[in-house]
Amino acid sequence: MSKVVFDEAKCKGCELCVHFCPKKVIQMADRINAKGYHPASLADEENCISCGTCGRMCPDAVIEVFKP
């Protein structure tokens, strides 16, 4: 089970989750979503600590965090 799930279709690429992630495990994807933005994605799930900071910072509530 993933620790963090992004609804990439809704992501507007603001990068707030990338900036505030304490472990720097989120990055912007190379692909473009239907809205024309590069969505955020979890690049390093192994080092994610499920702190939830990304989900709290997201203005569009596109991030769902699961505690292991």
Biggest beta sheet summary: 2 strands, antiparallel
Q: Percent range for helical residues? A: 10-25%
Low-confidence stretches: none
The chain-level structural class is: alpha+beta
Fold and architecture overview:
The protein is an alpha+beta fold and 68 residues long. The chain has a single domain (4-65), classed as Alpha-Beta Plaits (2-Layer Sandwich), CATH 3.30.70. It is built from two helices and four strands; from the N terminus they run βαββαβ. A two-stranded antiparallel ribbon has the order 1-4. Strands 2-3 form a two-stranded antiparallel sheet. The termini are close together. The model has no long low-confidence stretch (mean pLDDT 94).
The gist of it:
The chain is an alpha+beta fold and 68 residues long. The chain has helices at residues 16-20, 53-57; strands at 4-6, 26-28, 40-42, 63-65. It contains two helices and four strands; from the N terminus they run E-H-E-E-H-E.
Give the helix/strand layout.
Blueprint: E1 4-6, H1 16-20, E2 26-28, E3 40-42, H2 53-57, E4 63-65
Antiparallel strand pairs: 1-4, 2-3
